[in-house]
Description:
With about 200 residues, this protein is an all-alpha fold. It has helices at about 1-15, 30-50, 50-55, 65-80, 85-105, 115-130, 135-140, 145-155, 155-175, 185-200.
Amino acid sequence: MKKIWIAMSVVAVLVTGSISYSLANGEMDEFEKGTEFAKIYQQTIEKYTKRESVNSQLTDDINQEEVAEKIAQYRAFSKTFGGNATEEQAIEKVKERKLVADYAKKNDIYPTEEEILNHIGEQVKDYHEIGSELVVGMIKEFGITEEEFFYEFSRPGYEEELVRLNILEKLKSENSKRKDENEQIYHNRMLDELKDLINEMK
């Protein structure tokens, strides 16, 4: 079960930066999914870097490279794992990343560099203990080291995940668990509060 969790976690932070997610099944094995994801990502990112339709949707605080990166991640996810992730959804996720980062900074809960590195280190530790052919496939196809994969390529996703977790903890500190709630129901309610907060900031 934990092995599946690692695969899901890697894909989730790369594509959505989310702390709730799902992973579709397909005919390819995990290693093949990893290599396919990397192939499509690399094929897509250059194509979208200079695309005019993307340029027209940029704002002063969102640059072309990060939008192209997110679109490439969404396109790779859709073609590798199934689903229908769109360019518009990718751009919305880039905007969300800015919103949650700004909120965390304003509320003094943005993670420190040490906290970010420790958070990534925990993922690397789990990877070493359990392994993930999905990650192995990505690393091989990208032609990068394990350290580069986790601490450079995957870092933005893990950093955003930690930001969201910190905001979630803030919301929990402001909203006590109800008597009729167990931990899971309470956690899900706080996830809904986080979604509402992001929507309010848009």
